[in-house]
Design goal:
single chain; mainly alpha; 2 strands; 8% strand; globular
């Protein structure tokens, strides 16, 4: 049996797809950077949260920064890689607001610096048009794969 399709989505999910990992990134992006804040806001068991934080730090998504000497205490800050995941969080939040909340309820509203409520959308970097499924064409880069699956030899 051949291996699964080479995929950046799968590789990303291997890192941030574990339970609580994206919630850690949500909290850090909102400014809750200390362990006790993360435990309280996420509701994760302390040992699980410790493991997620270590994995995100080891992968270069977060950095662990000491803020107190006695006792030693640390906070977690996003690296550039962590900041780049914020757009993923925003689109997940927007999808959840549209498809999972009842009666137009939204647990969090974000305001852009222009003063308007942020409604994230994916746009093409070149033309600026909003991306829609029908406008996309996939080009597998691995020679062993086609759009629909493994290439037949």
């Amino acid at each position: 049996m051949k291996d699964a399709r080479p995929c950046s989505i799968a590789a990303t999910l291997a890192l941030v797809g574990e339970k609580y990992s994206l919630l850690v990134l949500r909290e850090v992006s909102l400014g809750a950077t200390r362990f006790d804040q993360l435990v309280r806001n996420i509701g994760a068991p302390r040992d699980v949260l410790t493991a997620r934080l270590k994995r995100l730090v080891d992968a270069g998504v977060l950095e662990k920064v000491q803020y107190n000497d006695r006792p030693k205490r640390y906070e977690y800050r996003p690296t550039q890689a962590g900041l780049e995941l914020e757009s993923v969080l925003l689109t997940l939040m927007a999808w959840g607001d549209r498809h999972l909340q009842e009666d137009s309820y939204r647990p969090m509203v974000l305001e852009h610096t222009c003063g308007s409520e942020l409604v994230p959308q994916v746009v093409c970097r070149e033309c600026g048009k909003e991306v829609e499924h029908a406008d996309l064409t996939a080009h597998p880069q691995d020679p062993g794969w086609t759009v629909t699956g493994p290439a037949v030899a």
